[in-house]
Amino acid sequence: MSTAQTVTGQSPLARLVQSWQAISPRERRLVLMAATVVGIGIVLTTLDWSRNERIRLGRAVPRAEAQLEQVQESATEITRLRAQPAPQRPAATALLDMAQASAKSRGLALSIQSGGEGLHVKGQAGFDDLIAWLAAVQHDQGLRVLRMELQQQGVQASIDAVLALPAAP
Q: Phi/psi class of residue 123: alpha, beta or left (left: φ > 0; alpha: ψ in -120 to 50)?
């Protein structure tokens, strides 16, 4: 006996055909109408789902493409930066000279000395000028504020700070 046949010896398809022929024509029409309604419901549900997904993807794809472009730009930038040689760390005396020259070029009367923790900065100048100078030495020479006491008196400010030397690359 074949595995497709049931215990009674008939295949499921043969039993279905036999059951279909056993029902009256009126019942056949009702079964066909019910199957048509169910089929139309399935088709409409599938079309509605498909339309909703198309709308969702229409919004999601441009966002994903923009994110992909950003990632590709970042990857290009990372590759470019990795190809560059690591910046050389200037000696502490060179940083001291650069910081003093930078302060002098901005007209700031600051006392800058090299110490164990980094560069010690003391003096008075315009508050905005001090902040701009600190930003410039951080950007240009890699010096960062380790400790700072800043007292503003009108447009003038007195500073007592320690600027840390940049870390080794």
A: left
Which run of H or of E encompasses 14? helix 12-22
Give bridge partners of residue 145 from the DSSP assignment: 163
Q: How high is the pLDDT of residue 28?
A: 92
**Opening angle at CA 51, ends 46 and 52, nearest 5:** 100
Q: Which two tokens stand for residue 97?
A: 């000279």
Residues 59-99 have pLDDT tens digits of 999 999 999 999 999 999 999 999 988 767 667 788 888 88
Count of Cβ atoms closer than 10 Å to residue 141 Cβ:
18
- Residue 1's pLDDT is 47
Q: What's the pTM?
A: 0.48
Which CATH architecture does the domain made up of 92-164 adopt?
Answer: 2-Layer Sandwich (3.30)
Q: Give the helix/strand (H/E) hosting 99.
A: helix 92-105
Residue type present at position 69: E
- CB under 8 Å to 51, separation ≥6 — which residues? none
Tell me how far apart the alpha carbons of residues 145 and 162 are, in angstroms, rounded to a whole number: 6
Q: What are the two backbone dihedrals, phi and then psi, of residue 168, each rounded to the nearest 5 degrees? A: -65, 140
Going from N- to C-terminal start, the domains of the chain cover: 13-66, 92-164
